[in-house]
TrEMBL record:
It comes from Donghicola eburneus. InterPro entries: Aminopeptidase_N-like_N, Aminopeptidase_N-like_N_sf, PepN_Ig-like_sf, Peptidase_M1, Peptidase_M1_dom, Peptidase_M1_pepN, Peptidase_M1_pepN_C, Peptidase_M1_pepN_C_sf. Its EC number is 3.4.11.2. Coiled coil: none annotated. Residues 528-843 form the Peptidase M1 alanyl aminopeptidase C-terminal domain. It is an enzyme of class 3 (hydrolase). Keywords: Aminopeptidase, Hydrolase, Metal-binding, Metalloprotease, Protease, Zinc. Residues 432-523 form the Peptidase M1 alanyl aminopeptidase Ig-like fold domain. This is Aminopeptidase N. CDD domains: M1_APN. The lineage of its organism: Bacteria, Pseudomonadati, Pseudomonadota, Alphaproteobacteria, Rhodobacterales.
Amino acid sequence: PQTFYLSDYTPPAFLIDEVSLTFRLAPEATRVISRIHFVPNPDTTDRSFFLHGEQLKLISAKIDGHDANPTLTAQGLTAEVPDHEFTWEAEVEISPATNTALEGLYMSNGMYCTQCEAEGFRKITYYPDRPDVMAPFHVRIEGDLPVLLSNGNPVDQGEGWAEWSDPWPKPAYLFALVAGDLRATSGTFTTRSGNEVALNLWVRPGDEGKTEFGLQALKDSMKWDEDVYGREYDLDLFNIVAVDDFNMGAMENKGLNIFNSSAVLASPETSTDANFERIEGIIAHEYFHNWTGNRITCRDWFQLCLKEGLTVFRDQQFTSDMRSEPVKRISDVLMLRARQFREDAGPLAHNVRPESYQEINNFYTATVYEKGAEVIGMLFRLVGETDYYRALDMYFQRHDGQACTIEDWIAVFEDATGRDLTQFKRWYTQAGTPHLTVTEEWVNGKYNLHFKQETKPTPGQPDKQPLVIPIAVGLLAHDGSEIVPTTLLEMTEAAQTFSFDGLTERPIPSILREFSAPVVLHRDTNNQERAFLLAHDTDPFNKWEAGRALAKDVLVRMITKGTKPDTGFLDALRQMALDDTQDPAFRALAMALPSQDDIAQTLFASGVTPDPMAIYGAVKTLSRAIAEHMKDDLPALLAANTVTEPYQPNAEQSGKRALANTALSLLSKLDNGAAAQAQYDAADNMTQQLSALSCLIRAGAGADALAKFEQQWHGDRLVMDKWFGLQVMLAEPEDAARVAQTLTERDDFDMKNPNRFRAVFGALAGNPAGFHHPSGDGYRTMADWLIKLDTVNPQTTARMCSAFDTWKRYDADRQAMIRDQLERIAAKPDLSRDVTEMVERIMA
Ligand code: HT7
Ligand code: ZN
């Protein structure tokens, strides 16, 4: 396959000032008629004419009314064109009903739907499918369906047709069309300058009861973007459509966002608190793209983090404002470490702004998204809140309507703040997680912190340069009082010392508060000090971090030295769990043990080959020890946090439920699931029902509840995804692969539906002891199904290949078994470009 390089960028030869598309919808023979007005790009002398196009049947092509006689290839076409402006007219035929890749125009449950990011538009018609070609679109849809939608504002409609016009120039990846039998829940939002925007959330008949929350989240997002960033919505209409078959969470098409139904449909009976929070965040994310992505887009796909990093940062700020700031920060860091640090530590490590790719879909990663957001968070800390928003105002003003680069973004911050950001820019161009080591010195009332930074080599990048690292530090006295409040240190050298004068005692430092930079911090400390910080740190993130470090230390010693669960840890955990002055959501997070994958990553980083079975055993033993240590407290903790008011998915109630369910899960280890069974029987919401079901399965008493659950929910595909996933996720290590395989044999397992496929195989990858079971069954079952799915849906298959990306952590037997499976995948005839690239990178 061809490799694309950032350094090869050239501007487009022709720009477009008008696009007209007509769709004559038919499941296996949709006609797309395009009329495109091209003008020579004054910024280049290149006049070669190339249009992307894949899997299209060309019916006719004309230039200024004459036959175009194009030369066709598998990637597109070329033709002789005038050296002045001209009109291209073409008709193509496509087959949405057989499009299982879910890119371009496809069908889902009788509904037509599009997904064009990143390069799906070329499967709809011939076009310069690159984000730096922006144009206003006029769209006519002809089809015998009640609802016909496209981007922008409606122009006109009649029986079996509708016309839409989007005045805002956009790249083809933001094009969307939806047609089907849909029902809307509607509302309005009045912008701060007085425009009334009509809002619709479109769903399949039967799903109308799950729309209220999404619509409110949209209104909250619109208001927040006005209040915080001064950004108003710019059309008369905002449509959201829920679709069942979708490769990712959602898509920000201009004025017509399309959502995976799992990322928008919610009701208390069918959705957990975590689902509600995720939905609110995704709705905000897609809405915020209207400015950061749509009005200002990317010049090319290497600049993906320009829109994604910034939009993730914005949706994180939103959730933090809507809910709890510390809880959101802790959850984001947990996610970053689980997914992005893992990526950075393995064969898939890449820059926040990659420099080459074979298939861009493989770069919608935690590095581009989540590390991209962390980089913006560091800029925010370094320049301060006032300058950050000044720079953003300048960005919106300077670049509205443009397709931009990271250089443009950095230049705005340099111009707005007068800072030289040359070194800071390395965060975009250097892969890998920096390791920051700190040592301390106390001499005559002077306290020195010596920092060293090091980034290990990553694929293709053997040498690393020092980065600018904002390190937020606070100092505490031994009585727990804070003697130096949070101060931001700016590290720029490979090794650097920061001094604090005028202290009367040697302080206890709280370093990297708020997780001020995406680094791994190393400090020679002890559990007494960790327990002190867990009890006294005023920074909630570091308070939580101290507890987490304690738990990790205990687990690592249990695994590597065979020690017993540490009573000091158990006491500290108990004290924190029962501390009513702390937010229940925070306490629930602090009581959760590090994930098995996190422990494997930690062991590997310290030179120990992780044994997934030993990790599984240690986590189980420690959880039981916590349960026994707290056995007299658990019923009261559960009762005190049981919500008796009617269900609300807000932060306060969900925090209490999280803590109560943590108590329930511990209690279930002692009472064989009796309390969980009572909760299951009484539950009137999915959070309570699902957590009780999990406890019952873990206690080995889940068979009845699983059967009842299926009976109750067999008609609800999103709830049934939970049922599928839970059984694999919680299966005993030796059973996990068999459970997954057995579930695929059911009639309601449909590999064409990414949610259902991910429910089963995402859960298999998320059950580390099951996936890495010494029998190799986990690897084999996963590979069997990735091979099957590749023919159907390469994008989802490629994403799931990352289950294997940690293979070098493990022992020789496991490595050999994984290598065999990767080779088996690689040998599949006609393996997609997506999966070929992933397997090659993982095996390299
Ligand atoms: N910008 C979107 C990224 C995306 C996508 C979404 C759905 C299906 C396929 C997709 N490929 C890329 C989603 C986002 O970041 O908001
Ligand atoms: Zn996005």
